[in-house]
Amino acid sequence: MAEGSIAERVRAVVAKQLKVDLDKVTDSAQFVADLGADSLQSMELIAAFEDEFDIEMDEDEAVKVKTVGAAIEFIARAAAEQRGK
Q1: Domain hosting residue 68, numbered range
Q2: In CATH, what number is assigned to the domain containing residue 13?
Q3: pTM, rounded to two decimals
Q4: Domain count, the chain
Q5: What is the Cα–Cα distance from 52 to 72, expressed in whole angstroms?
Q6: Which residues are catalytic?
């Protein structure tokens, strides 16, 4: 899975889940401060990422991810680790 496709898919999931324009979903955008996510939406995002990428995310670690760019890195790492198992 190419890094670019991961980033594009993460941005699409975020835009859909948070009902924001895709152009607002930048690497530096913070889920809460910039995109308006609340705690329930944050948990729904984790579930949506798990479904989209067919991975399991450690929720304790995932909720520490605050920006779209950090989510892309987190998901890429999780996907690579889980493919290796």
Answers
A1: 3-84
A2: 1.10.1200.10
A3: 0.90
A4: 1
A5: 13
A6: 38
